[in-house]
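[worker-b] picked up task from shared queue
[worker-b] task type: protein-ligand structure
[worker-b] ligand name resolved to magnesium ion; SMILES cross-checked against name lookup, match
[worker-b] sequence length check passed
[worker-b] input payload:
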Amino acid sequence: MLSVRNLSASFHTRAGIVRAVRNVSFDVAPGETLGIVGESGSGKSVTCYSMMGLIPMPPGRIESGSAMLDGTDLLRCPEKELRAIRGKRISMIFQDPMTSLNPYLTIGEQVAEPLVIHEGAGKKEARVRALEQLALAGIPDAEQRMDAYPHQFSGGMRQRVMIAMALITRPEILIADEPTTALDVTVQKQVLDLIRKLQQDMGTSV
Ligand SMILES: Nc1ncnc2c1ncn2[C@@H]1O[C@H](COP(=O)(O)OP(=O)(O)OP(=O)(O)O)[C@@H](O)[C@H]1O
Ligand SMILES: [Mg+2]
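[worker-b] inference finished, payload out:
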């Protein structure tokens, strides 16, 4: 499904060159879960951001390598093409759901946004599907809670919202960058179980 070869990424800062990722290669098969483990600062997040085209350039630079998704090299693909892929075929959930959600938009608006952007869904349809997806992600009373704002949700609930938003377009690949570190242990388990269940239902690679 996804094939990364010899990915190297660096940051050219005033203090020198930081070689954040060096020669990383891996493959992810359809429906498979691949885990990447490493100490803090070893380049896990930069690997994910590189594939999503989310490295700030400058100071960031992709030095070499490829990340092939069905014949498209994500590392070299023009921004316009990447925008059509990101959030549609590949979605990402982040470490900290508070800074990843927009405090000014309701939960319902945010979960529906990928449908509006990628599928041109109308307001009504997007809302109905957002409601469905929030319920699948285990948000109780989703109908009422859709109109709430992120600060009115707990950390675990916010991570469920992120998962709902990431999976609403039924992406082929979900990149999860330590999506449970900010949560306490019992909630971590619930969130991991949820990701596994949705993955099995949809056949997503994680
Ligand atoms: N914008 C940036 N400018 C300069 N250096 C950066 C930038 N972003 C990341 N780095 C550096 O790249 C290296 C890899 O960082 P990365 O965030 O990928 O680590 P990580 O494995 O995800 O760590 P953690 O487990 O703490 O999340 C680190 O040395 C970090 O300081
Ligand atoms: Mg990280």
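[worker-b] attaching auto-annotations
[worker-b] The radius of gyration is 17 Å.
[worker-b] releasing lock
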